[in-house]
TrEMBL record:
GO terms for molecular function: DNA binding. Keywords: DNA recombination, Plasmid. This is Tyr recombinase domain-containing protein. Residues 59-226 form the Tyr recombinase domain. Gene3D superfamilies: Intergrase catalytic core.
Length: 226
């Protein structure tokens, strides 16, 4: 092998080694970037997991919530009565929106007044049934029925419905009421009234628990398990 061929051969080996070294440096840089990204991501998640300050219902906030529920009944009766039932039952919005007309039965009372029993499935798992029963009087049910009757008549739609709370009658679609829309309306009323806590329908559960305690009931379970 002559000297020129030797140099050419060494030059090829050098280029190959240089390429490997450059690739190695590139991998190191990419690992650094990935490590920093994961570090920042973990930091953000930890910050998001910080517990928010606990919120307690006071007599002042209780009156404010009830005032907003009353106001919502005036501007949007169906939504207002939906929120009203949440506040007297402690149910979640997603549980109440599934209640059908067939889940309502009449029950006798000692005074002769007709009361209505509403069965709400509050189970967190579909395979399990856990029924909470809510009792309302004829005046409350009549107000709910009238609100729906007026709503459907204004739209020239048949007043019959599947759900206790329903605003639409689309064919081949589930016509459960839109709780996101209700939540936004209620939150706007709370803000306009000077309510500073960034909550909406969940306040109804807080109010329910607060009223139970105020009436002498001992709460032996956490709100999240209600």
């Amino acid at each position: 092998m002559d000297f020129n061929n030797y140099l050419n051969l060494n030059k090829g080996d050098t280029d190959f080694s240089l390429k490997i070294f450059k690739d190695y440096l590139k991998v190191i840089d990419e690992n650094k970037i990935l490590k920093n990204t994961l570090k920042n991501s973990t930091k953000t998640k930890k910050e998001n997991l910080k517990l928010s300050p606990k919120f307690y219902i006071t007599p002042k906030t209780s009156k404010l919530i009830e005032k907003c529920i009353k106001r919502l009944k005036q501007i949007d009766p169906i939504s207002g009565w939906f929120v009203h039932l949440l506040s007297i039952s402690g149910c979640r919005g997603t549980e109440m929106q599934k209640v059908k007309m067939e889940d309502i039965t009449t029950i006798p009372s000692e005074t002769g007044e007709i009361l209505y029993n509403i069965k709400v499935n509050v189970a967190k798992k579909r395979s399990v049934a856990c029924i909470r029963e809510i009792v309302i009087n004829s005046k409350e049910l009549s107000a709910i029925q009238t609100a729906h009757k007026n709503h459907f008549e204004d739209k020239n739609i048949d007043t019959r419905r599947t759900y206790l709370f329903q605003k639409t009658k689309h064919k081949f679609k589930d016509n459960q009421i839109d709780i996101i829309h209700i939540s936004k309306k209620f939150k706007n009323l709370l803000k306009k009234s000077g309510f500073k806590v960034n909550k909406s329908l969940h306040l109804c559960r807080n109010l329910f628990i607060s009223n139970l305690k105020a009436n002498g009931y001992i709460i032996l379970f956490k709100l999240k398990n209600l």
